[in-house]
Each structure stands twice: as C-alpha cells, then as structure tokens.
Design a protein that fits this description.
Blueprint: E1 2-11, E2 14-19, E3 25-29, H1 36-48, E4 67-75, E5 82-89, E6 95-98, E7 101-103, E8 115-118, H2 123-127, H3 130-142, H4 146-170, H5 176-219, E9 226-231, H6 242-255, H7 257-263, E10 274-279, E11 282-283, H8 284-287, H9 290-312, E12 317-321, H10 329-342, E13 346-350, H11 358-363, E14 365-370, E15 373-376
Parallel strand pairs: 3-13, 3-14, 8-12, 12-13
Antiparallel strand pairs: 1-2, 1-4, 4-5, 5-6, 6-7, 9-10, 10-11, 14-15
Helix pairs in contact: 4-5, 4-7, 5-6, 5-9
Main location: cytoplasm
Family: Belongs to the RecF family.
Function: The RecF protein is involved in DNA metabolism; it is required for DNA replication and normal SOS inducibility. RecF binds preferentially to single-stranded, linear DNA. It also seems to bind ATP.
Length: 377
C-alpha cells in the first residue's frame, strides 16, 4: 500500500500542495510550526476520518477559508487502486469520496487506506486517562473491521438512550413502573452490541500484545519486557466467545441496576474499559520513566503496523511525527532498522537531519518544510 500522490487544499497551514512521495522513507525536515505535523495528520485523517489533534473538523480548514480538502491516489497490493477525497466545510458536515462516489457511512470509507500514526501525543496512551486508551483501540480496530465500526455506532446510540432512561428514573420523571419495565430491553441491546466490541478488543489485544512484546524487546536491547493487559469493566468469567461475553455483560448490568438508577448512568460496559502496560512486571503508567513510557508507546505503534499487515495482507502507511528527539541512539538505530525491514511507505517529520546516518538519507526522499511549502532536497 502506497500513496502515489497527495494533494492538500486549504488544509491547516497549506494553501495548496501536491507531492509524489517515494515508496520508502520520506523525511520532512524543518523548524517547529511550519506544517510537518499537519502533512502527516492529513494522511491519518484520510485513513480514519478522525484527527488526533483537532477537537472539531473546522479546525482542519486553513484560516477562514470556506472549505478544506485532502485528496490521495493510493496503490494497493490486495485490492485495486483507489482515489480518496475528504472535504471539510465551515458550514456542512464533512464529505468523503471513494473513486468519486460520495459515502456517508464511515464503515464504507475507513480501511480504504490503512495508516499507523505515532506522535508526541501517543505518550498519553501509556500515562493518560483511560478514555485515551479506548480511543486508541477504537481507531485502530476500525481500520481493519467494518463490523466493529457498525457495532461501535450502535453501542453508542444504545448507551445514550439507556443513560437517558436511567436519568429519568433517578429524577423520577414519568411513570416509574413503565420506565423500569423497559430498562431490561435496553440492557439486552447494550449487552448485544457491547459484547461484539469487547470480544473484538480482546482478540485484537491478544495478538497486539505479543507483537508489541517482541518489538519492545528489540527497542530496549533485551533489557525490558512488556505485557499488555486488557482490563474490562466487569469480569469475563472465562468467556471464550462473543456469546459468553454477552452473558457476562448482562449479568454485570443486572448486578448494578440499583446503583445505576440512583446515579443515572451506565456503570459497566466498553465505555469504561482500560489497558495496563507492565514493564518488567510494573505498571508503566505509575512506575515507568518517560523513556520507558515512550518505548512502550512506540512498541505499540510498530506492533500495530505489523498486525494491520497480517489482517489486511499488505503493510499500512507508517507516520512518525517528531519521534527521534525523544529516543536515544540505540533506539533510533532499532527504529530505522525495524521500519526498513517492515517495507512500509514511511512519512517521518523532524527538526533537523542530524539523527540520520548517511546511508539512511541516501535511501530516503527528503523535503524541507517552511511555512506550509515543501522543497525536495
């Protein structure tokens, strides 16, 4: 999978840009706030429909321009080549087109282009709030599973309705007997959609954890071990499939029904799941140094790249946004070695070229970035 051409129009600080990146390593070098991260962000947005840095889509539009646009032509090994376009408007919802055909359902768009992004914010996957780790899971699983995207949307709608009902029960609005009678049906729907999410998350993390442990051992020169632990909001009690998870979820909801009605919110489910990262047996969030936390986050992303390749049959695009400054020489060497052997088209941003060996630069396509403009070196 490779991006043959990438075009930006009124995206972030880019008025107009068209590039033809190389098939291997593409390096974007320049001072801070020149547009390096914006370029990598555009590729991730095209792949997932989401930005990890923008709270609203209109933040992606340059200054006060009415419309922003990302366009790419992507060649794929397992599927036919595809033209992708995403348009953002100050007044309307974003529009996605695949080969010129407009799509409104995310499940039809996500996965056309697979990309793995690692940036400075990914340190929060390890040390931040549980919501950040859940977002990481949802975005990455969605790239390889349209079924997951559908289940996630259905779960969120059901959760919203069930929470509204619980608030009405808490505040004694409406007929309490009538409200209590419909609660079990909403609980059953929640367990149905939620079990699909939990089972998929569990399977994804089982494989991701094994791959991340291998990458982590390489990056740390064998000094540290990594274990990724899934922490659901209720015991799975040995459930081995989706049906078993659904049964355990339903039992967990029944056990806390009284507390939920008193508090007016759902207390169990995927919206309360978490992950724990153990380095040498200790929680990296609590006891890991920043260097160890950075290595855990990078290991996750490189393992994710490998897992996506296994699932879709070809390597995804790898986006490395200003990662070199926080890595020592040994980890940088291993990173370059791993990315080269992976065979992914890679986009890497940096403030200068000093961390690169002459051999790496000779194989790379290098761009100087300044004020939203690129110059091929």
């Amino acid at each position: 999978m490779q991006i043959e051409t990438l075009e930006l129009e009124s995206f972030r600080n880019y008025e107009r840009l068209r590039i033809e990146p190389g098939p291997g390593l593409n390096v974007f070098s320049g001072r801070n706030a020149q547009g390096k991260s914006n370029l990598l962000e555009s590729i991730y947005v095209l792949a997932t429909s989401k930005s990890t840095r923008a709270g609203k889509d209109i933040e992606l539009i340059r200054f006060e321009d009415p419309v922003g646009r990302i366009t790419a032509h992507v060649t794929r090994e397992k599927n036919s080549d595809v033209a992708l376009e995403m348009i953002f408007s100050q007044t309307d919802k974003k529009v996605a087109r695949v080969n010129g055909v407009r799509h409104t359902k995310l499940a039809e768009v996500i996965g056309q282009l697979n990309a793995v992004l690692f940036d400075s914010g990914d340190l929060e996957i390890v040390r931040g709030e549980p919501a950040i780790r859940r977002q990481f899971l949802d975005l990455e699983i969605a790239q390889t599973s349209p079924r997951y995207v559908h289940a996630l949307g259905a779960y969120r709608k059901t959760l919203e309705q069930r929470n509204r009902l619980l608030r009405d029960l808490r505040d004694a609005r409406g007929s309490l007997d009538g409200l209590r009678e419909v609660l079990p049906s909403w609980s059953a729907q929640l367990a149905h959609h939620g079990a699909r999410l939990i089972d998929r998350r569990r399977l994804f993390l089982e494989r991701l954890g094994l791959l991340a442990a291998e990458v982590h051992e390489t990056l740390s020169d064998g000094r540290d071990s990594l274990q990724v632990v899934y922490v659901p909001s209720f015991p799975l009690d040995g459930a081995v499939d989706e049906a078993g998870v659904r049964e355990a979820f339903a039992e967990a909801l029944a056990a806390v029904a009284h507390d939920e009605m008193n508090r007016g919110t759902t207390l169990r489910g995927p919206q309360r799941d978490d992950l724990t990262f153990l380095v040498n047996g200790s929680d990296a969030r609590l006891y890991g140094s920043q260097g160890q936390q950075r290595t855990v986050a990078l290991s996750l992303k490189l393992a994710e790249r490998q897992l996506i390749e296994e699932l879709v049959g070809e390597p995804p695009i790898l986006l490395l946004d200003d990662v070199l400054s926080d890595l020592d020489d040994v980890r940088r060497h291993h990173l370059f070695d791993l990315t080269e052997r992976a065979g992914s088209q890679t986009f890497l941003s940096c403030t200068n070229l000093r961390p690169f060996s002459k051999g790496v630069l000779e194989q790379a396509r290098v761009y100087a970035v300044s004020g939203g403009k690129l110059e091929l070196q």
